[in-house]
Amino acid sequence: MMQLGTQRVRPDGHLEIGGCDVTELAATYGTPLYVLDEAHLRACCRAYRDTLAAHCQRSKAFYASKALSTSAVAGIVAAEGLGLDVASGGELLTALAGGAPAADLMLHGNFKAEAEMRLALERGVGRICVDSVDEIRAWQALAEELDARPRILLRANPNVKPKTHTSIQVGQLDSKFGLSILSGAAMEAVEVALSCDRLELAGLHCHIGSQVLGWQAFAQAAGELADFMAAIRDRFGVTLDEIDLGGGLGIRYLPEHQPPAIAEFVSHVVSALLAKLAELGLPEPLIMMEPGRSLVGEAGTTLYTVGPVKVIPGVRTYVSVDGGLSDNPRPEMYGAEYNVFIANRAADTPDTVVTVSGKHCETDTLFRDVTVAAPRRGDLLAVQSTGAYNYAMASNYNRLPRPAMVTVADGQAELIVRRETAEDLLACDLLPARLQG
Ligand SMILES: *Cc1c(COP(=O)(O)O)cnc(C)c1O
Q: How confident is the model at residue 169 (pLDDT cuts 50, 70, 90)?
């Protein structure tokens, strides 16, 4: 196993997280189970918050809550002093339910429904990141109607392509997100925003991609934003006051993934930005970052119960588990890989190559050709680094109930998302009268 956060192997060979024996968690809460290492999550929040504060006069870290949106997670992150990015009405209401102040929220998205826009203005969401000229005009009209004056950031594309999966590269010209600096679209949008008397154009935003295992592309994007800020000053005589560098730092899914530490990442990127701003004669703005995966990813572990083990001689050994693409669609979506091991015999030598499949009516391979201690029916399989984009992307395919989630810390476990029930699964179904016997 990779040693992440508070994870360790107990003398009896069981995996322990947050001082809790995972075999006891599985017995109490059932499987599949999402386990969240609260101390690790809090440490990651502090690393962003404190490193930003050490380098900047004014700074704020925002948690991109789409990575794992639950009210308890929102509450933990808000308690650590972070704001939250929300990309829908549902994420907005979840952040508020967790106790995050509306002023510390930032609304994102390339399609903000009118109801979501109203909700944001009515609740007093602190910042809105706009993604198109159409959207800027829509905010102006709505702000006039509601007598509001929203603070907006413009999402600019710095034309930087980080090394990562193509479906999570988002900062290039050909992207549904943002407005290209290079093509002039971003400058046009600035002109429109400045002409809207109901909008306070506070600054610029960029987000170039996700699961990026270095800081160089981010430093480059930050430099492009600074250049664009100087161009806006030169053209309109307006000096914007905020720069948001987005999220995207990668995590350790496999031992060979070696992302920079959060503190190292933040200091490199912010130093590059500050140097560039100074060179351009721009005053230091409020500097923001929006990590998602790098806050919650490594803090999450999924526990599955091992079911049938099927050996196809000379071909492969299939191990079925009690979840699958409904609780983790990333292997199917992105070919994502994970580190797995037998959690009730975590000290045993991994000596058996197996392919782990989910229980869905698909070839839902979760983990292909992974080496684990010979699995037996009834074992517990631990999957590391499942905190981000697992529960958040979960579905009810095959009408499976979505799993429960617990936080663990100091030997205590707390249920933060209860397991769905049969009633939950049927709650939205309606049976027309003509079909009722
Ligand atoms: C997804 C997203 C993030 C977070 O990305 P991670 O890779 O999870 O850190 C930040 N900002 C925006 C606008 C996003 O869409």
A: low
Mean pLDDT of 291-310: 98
Same domain, 262 and 152: yes
- 227 three-class SS: helix
Last residue of a domain, one of 274, 294, 314: 294
Establish whether residue 248 lines the binding site of ligand 1, counting it when its CB lies within 6 angstroms of any ligand atom: yes
Task: Give me the pLDDT at residue 111, please.
Answer: 97
Which tens digits make up the pLDDT trace of 205-239? 999 999 999 999 999 999 999 999 999 999 999 99
Alpha-carbon distance of 10 to 14, in angstroms, equals 5
Whether residue 79 is contained in a domain is answered as yes
pTM: 0.97
Judge whether residue 82 has pLDDT over 80.
Answer: yes
Cα(68) to ligand 1 centroid in Å equals 11
365: containing domain: 8-30+299-426
**87 and 148 both lie in a single domain:** yes
Half-sphere exposure of 334 (CA within 13 A, CB side): 17
85 C-beta closer than 6 A to ligand 1: yes
Contact 217, 160 (CB under 8 A): yes
Catalytic residue list contains 361: yes
Cβ(204) – ligand 1 distance below 6 Å: no
Of 41, 207, 218, 334, the residue with max ligand 1 atoms within 8 A of its CB, to mutate for a pocket test, comes to: 207
**Whether residue 86 is found in the same domain as residue 115:** yes
Would the CB of 294 count as within 6 Å of ligand 1? yes
Reduced to 3 states, what is the DSSP secondary structure of residue 199? coil
Question: What CATH number did the domain enclosing 52 receive?
Answer: 3.20.20.10
| Domain co-membership, 43 together with 24 | no
Report the C-alpha gap between 114 and 145 in whole angstroms: 13
Q: Tell whether 321 and 387 lie within a shared domain.
A: yes
12 and 73 in a single domain? The answer is: no
Chain centroid, CA 182 distance in Å: 28
Q: For ligand 1, what atom is nearest to the CA of residue 293?
A: 8
What is the rounded CA–CA span in Å between residue 316 and residue 371?
Answer: 12
Instruction: Choose the residue to mutate in 68, 88, 108, 168 for probing ligand 1, maximizing ligand atoms within 8 Å of C-beta.
Output: 108
277 and 362, same domain (yes or no): no
Residue that finishes a domain, picked among 294, 322, 353: 294
Residue nearest to atom 3 of ligand 1 (CA): 247
